[in-house]
Amino acid sequence: MIALSRYALQSAGVAAFVLALKWLAAVLTGSVALWSDALESIINVVVAAVAYFALRLSAKGADANHQFGHYKVEYFSAVLEGALIAVAAIAIFREATASFFDPKALDAPILGLAINGVATVINAGWGWHLTRIGRRERSPALYADGQHVLSDVVSSIGVILGLIVGVLTGWLWLDAIIAACVGGWILMAGWRLMKDSVGGLMDVAADPRTLAAIKTTIGAQANGALEAHDLRTRAAGPVTFIEFHLVVPATMTVSAAHDICDRIEAALNKEVPGARVTIHVEPENKAKHAGIKTRSMRA
Questions:
Q1: Which stretches are transmembrane (predicted)?
Q2: Where residue 242 sits, what CATH number does that domain have?
Q3: Which one in 86, 118, 230, 275 has a CA-CA gap of 20 to 30 Å to 203?
């Protein structure tokens, strides 16, 4: 987790450099669309800094007051990112409205668009890298940061293409329209991030593919037990908590039942990296004849 926080710190540095380029492009041209693009990069800097501290805190692990760890703090950083995006979108709409009723010709459009293009290429490479790392390490903070950077790339491409059309046609009002479109685009991106992060805060269950893998692993590794039922899962950042009841024959010794639990837990940790497994062992009179059947029961 400490290694992941370095990515967030690097992201803040990249975002600051991209912001400087986009701000220069906006100043050179006087374009409200390029200004809106630069405003989104300000959010990238803030969010990367927040993600850095969130990842550092989530690495602390469990303590007396947080016995399940600090993993969910990453979701808070993603929710904050969504909220900041909404604020930026409102600011963009305000500037776009003023510019629409008082359009101005762009200064040095070729130079400004070229500078913004360089910033967009840098963002594209970094956003793809962050998203890949966030998905691989199951880090909501890094994944959200990467997704936001990529959404910034899409809006930047739209800005560049739109302004090229505006410069060639002389449609000054197009600058304001493009800025408004950028605001709408990032507003939708913010909503998606907040929706996913709130799901994590609400203890959303593992995704269907992971859940199917968990059930298959339990059924394959619980030989000697009778069944497993009341399976519950919840995701918290890179960790998946797995809980279920394991029914064993009444004559089975505690040691034998413990061996089965160890075997299941080891297999689940291999199948679902970062799994935290809790198994409640029950005698056969507690069987519900439902849930996950073991090999011995299928035989």
A1: 12-35, 41-59, 71-93, 108-128, 149-171, 177-194
A2: 3.30.70.1350
A3: 86
Report residue 126 CA to chain centroid gap: 15
- Report yes or no: 235 and 200 within 8 Å, Cβ to Cβ: yes
Structure tokens at 47: 């969010």
The per-residue pLDDT for range 114-169, each reduced to its tens digit, is 998 999 999 999 999 988 888 887 776 677 778 778 877 877 887 888 788 877 88
Same domain, 146 and 257: no
Beta bridge partners of 240: 235, 275
Q: How far apart are CA 11 and CA 47, in angstroms?
A: 9
Q: Could you tell me if 132 and 278 lie in one domain?
A: no
pLDDT value of position 266: 94
**Who has greater pLDDT, 211 or 104?**
211
Count of domains for the chain: 2
d(CA 145, CA 44): 7
The one-letter code for the residue type at 188 is M
Q: In the listed set 201, 236, 257, which residue is the last one of a domain according to the structure? A: 201
How far apart are the C-alpha atoms of 271 and 150, rounded to whole Å?
A: 30
Compute the distance between CA of residue 242 and CA of residue 276 in angstroms, rounded to an integer: 6
Asked whether residue 186 falls in the same domain as residue 80, the answer is yes
- Please identify, among 164, 185, 201, the residue that sits at the C-terminal boundary of a domain: 201
Alpha carbons within 13 A on the beta-carbon side of 261: 21
Domain carrying residue 142: 2-201
Alpha-carbon dihedral angle through residues 61, 66, 69, 72, given to the nearest 10 degrees: -130
Q: Are residues 63 and 157 in the same domain?
A: yes
What is the model's pTM? 0.59
3-state helix, strand, coil in the chain (%, to 5): 70, 10, 20
Q: What is the DSSP letter of 294?
A: P
Residue percentage of the chain with pLDDT more than 70:
84
